[in-house]
């Protein structure tokens, strides 16, 4: 008999995940307003929310607080945070709509495939492609939220500046590569696993 207690749904990792979800409407409202400082503050808030994904995963694994609710909410919160921010950035002219559409289609497609695979009892472990995809999407979104050009350092009459918008678009291209690549990789992994299963 297994005496190990089942982790409660109301724990620190799940609370952090819920924070990530509840902060999304706040970021949406803040993105409506244009301005140097509001964009910077929104970017900081988005970064904090994104970092909670690393923290809640670490705590859940270290203290054995992994729950079925957390398994559902954690990836959902990640997708909602990034996708909502990117969609809000489209009318502001900070990101092309087709780029966001590619990401939305990939996430929708992979989520649907996961649902089909889970119903068939098939589990596909997360790959490095998916992790890089998430990382570059978050960085690109953060840069596009901050948006402005900031002076880094000025020496005499020489000024070094950093354009967050241009950097964000560049990183978004990298994110798109990993987005499409990881989506195709997931599809073929699922296809091979389902093809190897004997017919009932």
Summarize the structure in words.
By secondary structure, the protein is mainly alpha-helical. It has one domain: CDP-alcohol phosphotransferase transmembrane (TM) domain (Four Helix Bundle (Hemerythrin (Met), subunit A)), CATH 1.20.120. The chain has six helices and two strands. The protein has a two-stranded antiparallel sheet. A hairpin with a 2-residue loop joins strand 1 and strand 2 (158-163). Helix 3 (68-89) packs antiparallel against helix 4. The longest helix has 33 residues, at 164-196.
Break the fold down into its secondary structure elements and pairings:
Blueprint: H1 12-32, H2 36-62, H3 68-89, H4 97-119, H5 128-146, E1 149-155, E2 158-163, H6 164-196
Antiparallel strand pairs: 1-2
Helix pairs in contact: 1-2, 1-3, 2-5, 3-4, 3-5, 4-6, 5-6
Runs in which pLDDT lies below 50 for 5 or more consecutive residues are none
Number of domains: 1
Question: CATH first level: which class?
Answer: Mainly Alpha
Which structural class best describes the helix and strand composition?
A: mainly alpha
Give the second-level CATH assignment, the architecture. Answer: Up-down Bundle
Q: What is the CATH T-level topology?
A: Four Helix Bundle (Hemerythrin (Met), subunit A)
